[in-house]
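Supplementary material to the annual report.
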Amino acid sequence: MNKDRIILEAEDISVNFGMYGKGLSKYDLTVIKRLNVTVHEGEILAIVGASGSGKSVLAHAVLGILPSNASVGGEIRYCGKPLTKSLQREKVGSEIIMIPQSVTYLDPLMKAGQQVMGLKGTKQQLEEAFRRYGLDMSTEKKYPFQLSGGMARRVLISTAVISDAKLILADEPTPGLSEDMADETMRHFRELADKGCGILMITHDIEAALKAADTIAVFYDGMTIDCCTAEDFRKGREALKHPYTRALWSALPENGFVSADVSALMKGAS
Amino acid sequence: MTDSVKHEAILSCKNVSFRYSSGPWILKNVSLDIQKGERLGLVGPSGYGKSTLSRLLAGYDAPTEGQILWKGGKLPQKGFCPVQMIYQHPEKALDPRWRLKRSVSEGWQPDEELLKKLNINSRLWFDRYPNELSGGELQRFCIARVLAPQTEFIIADEMSTMLDALTQAQIWNVLLDEVKRRDLGLLVITHNKSLAEKLCTRIVDLRDINNAADRP
Ligand SMILES: Nc1ncnc2c1ncn2[C@@H]1O[C@H](COP(=O)(O)OP(=O)(O)OP(=O)(O)O)[C@@H](O)[C@H]1O
Ligand SMILES: Nc1ncnc2c1ncn2[C@@H]1O[C@H](COP(=O)(O)OP(=O)(O)OP(=O)(O)O)[C@@H](O)[C@H]1O
Ligand SMILES: [Mg+2]
Ligand SMILES: [Mg+2]
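Predicted assembly:
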């Protein structure tokens, strides 16, 4: 593994949605502006940040699954090559795997086991993953609507971890999972990264993220406003510089559950 | 309100058992009383039946055996249900083919003040379809939707797991204010122990009240 090798590089990214306003007037809604993100071989980059700040949209831009009214500016490179539509078609699903935020990405008509194995997975891999994530083997035969929230989430994780992906884009992998399960997921991510996989993990669960991530990027309103090492976050509030990042830390239920006037904070910061 | 009312259960299940068609029992002989004025936390492992129980309590599904009691009687079968649920997955709670303004007009029109407190941009959002909003935006919309004036009890099923810490704190503060001001009942389902301890006056582990045999 070469830790200096860049797997994913998104440079100066912007994303606009063409929208219709009153009386069919058209306007552009900018949701990401001048964003830069880099993931190296063996690196776990955690992206945290405000709801609606463009985290999922960024992941969807990399995967090429934004709706047709979206336009993407800037350049996304995968292993040094521009990630064009045709390269996306070639790599997404095999080398580039997503764990989606919405459980509606599960195919409602396909049993969980089939979805997890995908095209290349083996029964043995499936059993290993299910054991690791505490899923009973009977889950294999269940359709998505028969899964509980946390089971659906663990099925989605299993799908990604048994593929031999080079890049995993995990959009909220752990909500609704117990602390043990979230920890197990983080341990697994770390193992995959240590074997050379690059992982971009979008998460609200800072506590879990800190157990695995190398770097933490903080998003707000379509921009990266702060980037720090997981180490800084672990040290606590005093080690954090940006006021939004500090407020985020203090808002964790275990750190005080303090809500703050974010727009005022941001005004103060700029 | 008199003291005697204070100690009465407003929502309860009596010897409730449930299974999906002919599958294994998910819930067996579950009894639980939720008192007026308490904020109950319900915890338990994934796949154990927490969401199933909350759907029974909100009247979406009927128990296979046993009874759900709302103020000692039956939940109203028609019209607005006083027990409202905030789902674990907001994307499954809304009709994907409806713009938000249609979903909102089904229930009530939330006032600007509430929308503001929840950081909901009605002007920008209401013309959109659910898949044109972020996960957290959609969940905040669902929270506004259940806070109708007729609502008397709220079941929040893992409602804040997809919110960032700041939004989570803000949303819960708004919801707790409403609950206290309007004297609403509240059942909180969560995996987050710190969160349950912050929010609830009592915490019940479903494992302690469920007699279904071979659970995960
Ligand atoms: N198809 C779309 N059309 C218009 N606006 C959209 C569309 N999809 C997303 N948006 C907007 O883009 C912004 C970023 O959305 P995104 O889903 O990336 O947020 P997020 O950071 O993932 O938030 P969350 O943490 O709540 O999931 C949001 O304000 C959302 O309303
Ligand atoms: N529609 C259904 N048909 C068949 N079985 C179902 C259905 N819905 C849920 N189940 C099963 O019922 C059990 C309990 O599910 P439930 O969703 O109530 O769990 P939960 O405690 O909410 O879990 P989580 O914390 O993961 O959300 C699970 O084993 C699940 O597979
Ligand atoms: Mg998102
Ligand atoms: Mg559930």
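Chain A has a mean pLDDT of 91.
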